[in-house]
Amino acid sequence: ELITERIESITLPNVTDVRPLIVIDPGHGGIDPGAVGINGLQEIQVIFPISLRVTELLQQHGANVVLTRQDNRTLDLAPRVQLAERVDADMFVSIHANAISMARPDVNGVETYYYYSSGREVAEFIQDSLLQATGMRDRGVKSARFHVLVNTSMPSTLVEVGFVTGAEDAPLLSDPLF
């Protein structure tokens, strides 16, 4: 089954009547490439195209979307949070790719984090949708004290879309179509 067919099978709510404002935060950027994995695969090479596609899908379903960065620039954590607060976002989603020691290519999968209970339901929906769309391993929904989760007042999540160091995940994450 192709990933495009899996994605099409996911029913996203049409929110045109609500027009929620969602801030999408492509993690890292600029001088910070994020994690580096198999064959030199950099986190920013993976998450920026994903962030743009997520933005496109959300807009097609009626959401207003603001990106914390629209290009490969260096951006500290505080301005990401400040942007979400300034635009009075209804939701904040930070997108990342995970890594672990290159000696652990057996570690693969998707995980989604939240801090405040208001982000848990969103994190669970994102996690379930990602698993349905990709067929990747389920590493679960977890609570964590990440800066962008602790310091945002709206429901917030941080998504790890897979491991750039994972033998299963890295080839998938390096494929733009995937």
Describe this structure in words.
There is one protein chain. The chain is α/β, with parallel strands linked by helices and 178 residues long. The protein has six helices and six strands. The chain has helices at 3-8, 43-60, 77-86, 120-134, 147-150, 169-173; strands at residues 21-26, 64-67, 91-98, 110-114, 138-143, 156-163. A six-stranded mixed sheet has the order 2-1-3-6-4-5, with helices on both faces. The radius of gyration is 15 Å and the shape is globular. 39% of the residues are buried.
Q: How big a fraction of the residues is strand?
A: 15-25%
Distance between the termini: 12 Å
Largest sheet: 6 strands, mixed
What radius of gyration results from the CA coordinates?
15 Å
The succession of helices and strands, N to C, reads HEHEHEEHEHEH
Outline, from the CA principal axes?
Answer: globular
Low-confidence stretches: none
Kindly state the mean pLDDT as a whole number? 92
| DSSP helical segment count | 6
Biggest sheet strand order reads 2-1-3-6-4-5
Structural class: alpha/beta
Helix content estimate: 25-40%
Please provide the count of β strands: 6
